[in-house]
Design brief:
The chain has 357 residues and is mainly beta. The chain has one domain: 6 Propeller (Neuraminidase). It has a 4-stranded antiparallel β-sheet with strand order 1-2-3-4, with no helix packed on it. Strands 5-6-7-8 form a 4-stranded antiparallel β-sheet, with no helix packed on it. It has a 4-stranded antiparallel β-sheet with strand order 9-10-11-12, with no helix packed on it. The chain starts with 9 loop residues before the first helix and ends in an 8-residue tail after the last strand.
Length: 357
């Protein structure tokens, strides 16, 4: 892989400074990755100006194409995106309403409203099969600190449902899967104000709460990440008050995965063998790290990064991580690259391509 970072000509940078015009507006918040085909990956991300953008990276041609999807009726958007597919993304407006951008021959914007309270925090979107039909769900916490879902069943109409909870932190992570007996599982993980992890799950007829707990320390970064492997091995990642990464499995067994001064939300992907997961996280030093199993840590490189990361499996070219640096540049980094931070970013600086925000 090569660094795809370009330099701005001196005279252009000077003119922009004199005119007080930024060269790049930059992006922010939580991106949402997707895979388009075997050698193409991409992500939705919100710009500093509050508009939704989409970029597709061709790993063969090493070219990236940007689209400005706007915001249309939504106005300025909050810096968080949830994507179900390459053609469907959900965003939240500054006034706390849910909107979606969908491609159906052309990009269209849809107003999805709210459940009676304004929405905030991040979202978690999943696809699931119910009665033989494909359906979708978006989980989010409202300003009343309770959990809500915007979903549909049997390909019917979308609807809001209140899932309850009190004093919940405003970050959620959901998974859907069928177990070996063919039973559908919908699960969404949240952290309560008491520092414990909870799960809201669909039992086939109704939504139920279950207490998961915490490791020997409080959960200080309330951004759980739930990941299912190919063999229905479930792991949820959280950050403890001691700065370590912790995971818990379906037997409620907590594992201290180590780390130091971790204070950012983790994200994860299953390993190639499908039996366990990898966690990607930005450390307290702003560098990107990967935890594979137990206390085994590597760094794919890059530093000066913002908290949120969004990993994706390209299918043919391994895992890639979308992340934003402190300058607002949008980066795609291969997880197989391990270089010291001072060598710079290896991968692609997507903000250097034409049309980038």
């Amino acid at each position: 892989m090569r660094a795809n970072r370009t330099k701005i000509p001196y005279f252009l940078a000077l003119m922009c400074c004199l005119l007080n015009v930024p060269v790049f507006a930059g992006v922010q918040g939580q991106p949402a990755a997707f895979d388009q085909d075997l050698y193409k990956i991409g992500a939705f991300v919100v710009s500093d100006s509050g508009r939704l953008h989409r970029v597709v990276l061709d790993l063969q041609s090493q070219d990236a194409v940007w689209e400005d999807l706007g915001g249309d009726g939504a106005g300025q958007l909050r810096p968080t995106v949830a994507a179900l597919y390459e053609h469907l993304a959900f965003v939240i407006s500054l006034n706390g309403d849910l909107y979606s951008a969908q491609f159906d021959g052309a990009w269209q914007w849809y107003y999805n409203g709210n459940p009676g309270v304004a929405l905030s925090g991040n979202m978690s979107a999943i696809n699931y099969v119910y009665n033989g039909t494909s359906n979708d769900a978006v989980f989010v916490v409202g300003d009343d600190d309770s959990l809500y879902v915007y979903w549909r069943r049997d390909e019917g109409d979308w609807q809001w449902s209140a899932l309850g909870g009190i004093a919940l932190t405003h970050y959620v992570s959901a998974v859907s899967y069928e177990d070996k007996n063919g039973n559908l599982h919908l699960e969404v993980y949240v952290v309560g104000g008491d520092g414990n992890l909870y799960v809201k799950f669909w039992d086939g007829n109704a939504w139920q709460w279950n207490f998961v707990g915490r490791p020997d320390v409080n959960v200080s970064v309330a951004f759980p990440f739930a990941q299912m492997s190919d063999y229905y091995t479930e792991e949820v990642f959280v950050i403890g008050s001691d700065g370590h990464l912790y995971s818990v499995d379906i037997s409620n067994t907590w594992v201290d995965r180590g780390g130091s001064q971790l204070a950012k939300p983790p994200a994860g992907l299953p390993l190639h063998d499908g039996r366990s997961s990898s966690a990607f996280i930005v450390g307290g030093d702003g560098a990107l790290y990967k935890n594979t199993s137990g206390t085994s840590w590597t760094s794919p490189g890059a530093c000066g990064l913002q908290p949120f990361v969004s990993p994706i499996n390209s299918g043919a070219d391994g895992y890639w991580i979308f992340v934003i640096d402190d300058n607002g540049s949008f980066l795609a980094i291969a997880d197989t690259i391990a270089v010291p931070c001072w060598h710079g970013t290896y991968g692609y600086d997507l903000s250097a391509y034409p049309g980038a925000p």
